[in-house]
Design a protein that fits this description.
single chain, mainly beta, eight-stranded antiparallel sheet, 3 helices
Length: 709
């Protein structure tokens, strides 16, 4: 039982609202209408006049809005009102106690408020009402019919801090549960009047939980997204709105568990079965051949090729995962065609499939990927014949949603679905229909996985990651016999007339060398850079540097003197037979670096143009670090300047085409031959097969290569 406080003292700290004394002399002989009260609140809670009083914390405040009929204003009656508040209660001896307070005058229509002293009795039902006075007449008490007295209980004690527990993640216990595995966390305060718990996972979600009944416990479900120390902070709230102290609950989730079933499908050519790294080996039909191609930039060394016939499948004798609970399935796939519906993997039931990952190709619509669970389907993404994609279907029984991820990104809209438990065979390359197996896969499949837990966002990204491969890095630090070398001994760049490598050793200072007329001009990066004269100067390879039909990244540092930026000048280009596959240039009319990529290898083909506003000599006068990133998986091209991109520097480019022309530095093809020669400096040219991440792009522009993960 909480301690009861004594009766009210003789002093009251009240909020004085207004200080103007009303005068009614000018309207003394005219009829006055009484004022009125409305909007009664106890500690900002609406007036509780029924059987259940309002429970309020410290310091309790009473308030009401005072109004006066407009007719009084028209005949000149005062526009200043005062409020008289009265509270009453029965003391422990059953004797009624009453106290009243009157506020200072304040204009009509505003709120009058008093703050009660902290020594009013706690845990006691107190009643109150209020009336208004305009200097001539009182309004009725707010408790008079049809009104009623407001009732409240003053709670002067905060609830006790909650106790937190979890069976899956016990406190201060190392390596329990695991990433992607849900756990229950129960919060329970010893106080009997708790109505809500506020919780926050450090670095994670926060929210509130309400017990089934006042004073009871509340349980939430949470899935750790990473391994290591984690903290759940919880506070209890009672019905008066008072907050408990904070409880910090520490727990230590284990690392993510391995798939319960996995087939790399990297078996030797001629194998009749696919070995299982986890789960049951899969029997291969006659339409399956092993030792097929693997997606570059992944750990896979080979895949299985399915011919699209009724013999092109792999199957087990039992399910890969329990689809009646949270699960995920995924695989690397490369369709040989995208004009018919085909199944990557599925799970048999007695009459069909519990779930399936597939390529959907409606007759009058574009093809898409799909993840089906029972009667629910999530669709999205754009399959392309001959292009690798990583597919992942995830079903979360906690949320009831099925989701589809393509190349590490969620596509389509997550879909509500009910779990479908199945005990039939697992299928790779086909699905069971009313009349037998159908929708056979034609193409390559690799690294099929099934998880009996949630696959968390970082894993989704990692599973689909293709590590970019460095194709060349030219630092322009030396030149020999008309060429400048590639840093690792690859193909050198040939220097045309008007192109030279400027080195640190070429620098001079007027105070040392009498023939030196300017102070030192340092290379852009490192020991040297490429200097181009704007007339014929350029550097070139004998072959293309990147496959523009697949994902690629190019990085370069470029600088143009502001006085020289009088016309468009090209930094990098690579041509096809009829047009440039890409052209990176500076356009002084737009004050921007610009990337131009035609959609087809045709003269006059539509172009994707993106740009980055910046000065030609860079933000600090030392050049701009530029990067082109084309991601074939998402069909996007982005232009970066000094490590950053934006909406105007991003475009959708589907079906990039492969150029055959050599890389050019400092010029581009025009209708009259070569043109748009760059007058300026170029440094640190880097080329990659694959799309670099934003973080890796920011590491470009140095004489060392990014540490790609």
């Amino acid at each position: 039982m909480r301690k009861r406080r004594g009766l009210l003292g003789s002093c009251l700290a009240a909020l004085v609202v207004g200080a103007v004394t009303p005068s009614a002399a000018s309207a003394a002989e005219q009829s006055n209408l009484p004022p009125a009260v409305q909007d009664l609140q106890t500690a900002f809670k609406d007036c509780a006049s029924g059987d259940e009083p309002a429970y309020v914390g410290s310091p309790p405040a009473l308030q009401a809005r005072l109004t006066d009929p407009v007719e009084d204003d028209r005949i000149g009656y005062p526009e200043q009102l005062t409020a008289e508040f009265e509270i009453w209660w029965s003391d422990p001896d059953g004797i009624e106690q009453r106290r009243t307070w009157t506020t200072s005058p304040y204009p009509v229509g505003l709120v009058h408020r008093i703050t009660l002293p902290p020594d009013i009795p706690s845990d006691t039902v107190l009643s109150w009402h209020v009336r208004a006075n305009d200097g001539v007449a009182y309004s009725p008490w707010s408790s008079e019919a049809p009104g009623a007295a407001c009732r409240f209980v003053y709670d002067d004690a905060s609830p006790a801090a909650p106790v937190v527990s979890s069976p899956e993640y016990p406190a201060d216990t190392w390596w329990t549960g695991g990433v992607g595995i849900y756990g229950s966390f129960t919060m329970d305060s010893p106080s009997a009047d708790v109505v809500e718990y506020r919780y926050t996972f450090l670095g994670g979600p926060s929210g509130t939980a309400r017990p089934a009944e006042m004073g009871g416990p509340a349980t939430i479900r949470y899935v750790p997204l990473s391994r290591g120390s984690q903290i759940l902070s919880v506070q209890a709230l009672d019905r008066a709105g008072r907050v408990s102290g904070r409880t910090d609950y520490s727990f230590y989730p284990n690392a993510a568990s391995a798939p319960v079933s996995r087939w790399k499908l990297d078996d030797e050519a001629g194998s009749a079965t696919a070995a299982a790294e986890a789960g049951e080996a899969a029997r291969a039909g006659r339409g399956v051949t092993f030792a097929g191609p693997a997606p570059s930039g992944t750990p896979l060394t080979s895949t299985a090729t399915l011919d699209g016939s009724r013999h092109g499948f792999l199957t087990t004798g039992s399910p890969a995962v329990d689809s009646g609970r949270t699960f995920a399935v995924g695989a690397w796939v490369r369709p040989a065609r995208d004009d018919r519906s085909m199944t990557v993997l599925s799970q048999d039931t007695t009459s069909g499939a519990a779930y399936a990952l597939a390529l959907e190709a409606p007759r009058k619509a574009s093809a898409s990927w799909s993840f089906t669970l029972g009667g629910a389907k999530a669709t999205g993404g754009t399959p392309e014949a001959g292009e690798w994609a990583y597919l992942l279907g995830v079903y979360d029984t906690e949320t009831g949603y099925a989701q589809l991820f393509v190349d590490g990104r969620e596509v389509g809209t997550k879909t509500e679905a009910a779990p479908v438990r199945a005990d039939g065979a697992f299928q790779i390359g086909r699905t069971l229909g009313p009349n037998g197996y159908r929708r056979h896969w034609h193409g390559d499949v690799g690294d099929v996985r099934a998880y009996d837990r949630l696959v968390v966002p970082s894993e989704v990204t990692d599973l689909a990651h293709r590590k970019p491969r460095l194709l060349g890095h030219w630092s322009f630090s030396t030149a020999d016999d008309g060429t400048t070398p590639e840093n690792a001994g690859g193909a050198p760049l040939r220097l045309g007339t008007g192109a030279s490598v400027y080195r640190v050793s070429d620098m001079c200072t007027p105070d040392v060398d009498p023939d030196c007329t300017t102070w030192p001009r340092y290379p852009l990066v490192g020991d040297g850079h490429l200097e181009l004269d704007g007339e014929s100067g350029h550097a070139a390879l004998d072959t293309p540097v990147v496959d523009t039909g697949d994902s690629f990244t190019l990085g370069v540092v470029a600088r143009i003197e502001q006085n020289d930026a009088t016309r468009p000048m090209t930094v990098l280009s690579q041509a096809g037979e009829h047009t440039e596959a890409f052209k990176l240039r500076y356009d002084p009319a737009l004050y921007a670096w610009q990337l131009i990529m035609p959609e087809r290898d045709e003269a006059g083909a539509p172009e994707k143009v993106v740009s980055q506003l910046t000065m030609p000599d860079g933000a600090n006068g030392y050049g701009t670090q530029l990067a082109i990133v084309y991601d074939d998986a998402t069909d996007t091209v982005r232009l970066f300047a000094d490590g950053y991109t934006e909406a105007d520097a991003t475009a959708h480019l589907q079906d990039g085409w492969t150029s055959t022309g050599p890389l050019q530095v400092g010029r581009a093809r025009t209708a009259d031959g070569w043109g748009e020669h760059l007058k300026g400096q170029v440094d640190e040219l880097q080329a990659y097969a694959g799309a670099l991440t934003d973080e890796d792009v920011r590491q470009l522009g140095w004489d060392t290569d990014p540490c790609l993960c």
